[in-house]
Amino acid sequence: MGEASEEKKVSGGGTKEGANLLGPPTFSELPNGRLKCVETGHEMVLKDKETYAQSKRCRLGLIEFALSHSKPPLNMFEQDPLSRSKLICKLTGDTVNKSEEHIWKHINGKRFLNKLEQKEMEEEFMDETMAEEAEKKPKKEKKKKKKKKEKEKAVEEIISEVRDSAENESDSEELEFWIPPVGERWDFDDGGDRWGSGSESDQSDDENEPEAVDEERGKESEELSTRAKRMSIEIGPSSFASRKKKSRKNTS
Question: Which of 50, 74, 72, 55 is nearest to 64 (CA)?
Fold first, then answer.
């Protein structure tokens, strides 16, 4: 009988596992001497502090406060949109009652712990890969910069070579430009004073002008004599004598 009564006390009056998972509430003292719960905003007298801290209303308010502020372990849960009294685990996807006892049982279960370990391993692997990539990036950037400098240097060398070759070609073209020797040009230009040669040619033209005029005058006199001869032959001596007689009569 004594053992049975002890079991009843433990099961009935004793605290359950995870009942105080979120710890005690926080209180602030008001100027009027009353206390105010920071998480729920409930005001009370000093004597009701302990009873309120263990009340269902206070424990539910602590869950709501931790859920809205993403405080552990409630940061692994979210509100069930279909039921106000239920929570959904973000890690496993399971639905849990909104009570500290059920939350405690869920986060200590094998399914939750296995998923949590798997997630931690994935995060560690991601951190390692990110660290390796961060170490490789400076090397890659250095290689890229080195390649870029090499390309720029090669381009500069090519440009300098092209410029040098262009300068050499221009120099060779100036040297290879053909200058004909004096007196052997196709236009018979001996390279002398062209103004002097022009004046001499003008003088020679002036000297030749009288000769040309005499030749023209001689040709005209020859043409006139030939015309007179032709006329004398056509008219004859008789007609010429009769014309003379008529002219004498007219004068007398």
Answer: 74
